[in-house]
Write the structure tokens for this entry.
Amino acid sequence: MSKILYIHPTLETGGAEEIRFLTLKYATRDKQNIKVLCIQKKGAVAEKIENLGYEVICLDKSSKPYDLLATFKLFMYLIKNKFDIVQTSLFEANFHGRIAAKLAGVPVIISEEHSEHYQYNSFKFKAHIYLDKFLSMFTDKIICCSEKMMYSISKKENISMNKLIPIVNAIDFKKFENVKNRTFVRKSINLDNSNILIGNIASLSPRKGQDCLIRAFSKIHRIFPSSKLVIVGREHIKTKDKLCDIVCELRLADDVIFLGERQDIPDLLNAMDIFVLSSVHEGLPLSIVEAMYMGVPVISTDTGGVSEIISNGVNGILVSPGDPDSLSDAIADLLNNSEKSRLLAKSAKDIVSSKFDPNIYINKLNSLYEEILKKKRGKLCAA
């Protein structure tokens, strides 16, 4: 039985965190002894993982790279609790986790990448590129959530392709089985079926481009006065304040609804007429996949691995990032063409059902574990 430790900075709501929950929900417990560790704090996803019966350890330390006390405390934990595999997720956990695992002599070290590290282009984050390059030297495999992102990271950080492997994320189909009635959900947010509901699900962050979406929506609202925009996701105060300023400037205070972080995403998707992702930078966003599975027509900016999910005009619409006019034109096109919307949504659900099955994801992950462990054990026997 393999002993595995998954390490995250936190387990608050987010794509990488939901993938961890999915991994644990579908894990082969008879073959794997799994524990989960948060460096800084737990969060809503940690609670869901604990409800599955897993132990979630929290170091209660800052996860910032300069806080080497977190690295030391993690090293001590790994020394006391021997693991066959340590798998880290997101930069801060990748930093502390890989150093601690190497020092503790963990046989297999794996990291995950969920974004293209757009911020590394700035001088402030240049060190991150060199750190990732250095840490890759003793990482057995780096899992990338899309092929595009894999090539981007290899090129940007000068990491050998032999170190990288794409494993496309998945979604839990079961959580979409018993969604609440569309009318009921709309009433719960003070809307009715006469409203056109455009939705965005993403944490409030500059890289998610909600400022562009709000400006695009202002044009839509002039054409379709009954339209409403709902933005769902964890709220960062500075970003929300800026977005609220734009809403007030455009006189949309009654028409743009911020719902904050929610756990009833399937219900909210069921209430939407169109789903829009306006991100400037992405990895492979699960929110798009979930919207497609729910049969909601999707418009997205063409960034990161999005084009690996959406074929423009076939199962969704792609537009350039940071272009409110293109975004509003695409929304208006779908609102004016219900048959096109229906066909896009049907095609989208078909491809998601076949490509994003959680069992496919788990099988690929387990095969990776078995392959690396077999090589490691073979080397030990040879020695």
User: Anything to note?
Assistant: The chain has two domains: 2-170+357-382, 175-355. Residues 212 and 324 are 5 Å apart (CA to CA). The mean pLDDT is 91. The chain has 14 helices and 13 strands.
